[in-house]
Q: What sequence folds into this?
């Protein structure tokens, strides 16, 4: 039976038909974005691409925390950039967030993203007891 994870610190995305994360017995899926759920626009503190990456990963961290996990339990990310010009700053911020690694497997796509967001990150984490 899935568990829907909606940490109160992230605001309420449920009126938009979204949950911030979903957990199963073995996996947790988390979506990170720097969007204000009230305005549906990019948060004011997401000035740079690096800020936006940091906020996305912090939000994912809050979701994982609710599931009893942390960033080190992430095994896969799917990352979305609005413009390929953001790639270098994105990679630098992403690497900084994970430190010396290990780094999860990652796919990065350049495509349109809702609202004025420039970055969105999805993460899949494995519960240690499931491995």
A:
């Amino acid at each position: 039976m899935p568990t829907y994870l909606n940490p109160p610190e992230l605001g309420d995305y449920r009126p938009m038909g979204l949950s911030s994360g979903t957990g199963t017995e073995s996996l947790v899926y988390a979506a990170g974005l720097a969007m204000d759920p009230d305005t549906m626009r990019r948060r004011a503190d997401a000035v740079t691409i690096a800020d936006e990456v940091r906020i996305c990963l912090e939000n994912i961290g809050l979701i994982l925390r609710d599931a009893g996990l942390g960033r080190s339990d992430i095994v896969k990310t799917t990352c979305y950039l609005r413009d390929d010009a953001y790639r270098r700053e994105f990679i630098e911020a992403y690497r900084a967030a994970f430190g010396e690694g290990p780094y999860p497997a990652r796919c990065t796509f350049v495509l349109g993203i809702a609202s004025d967001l420039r970055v969105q990150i999805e993460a899949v984490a494995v519960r240690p007891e499931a491995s």
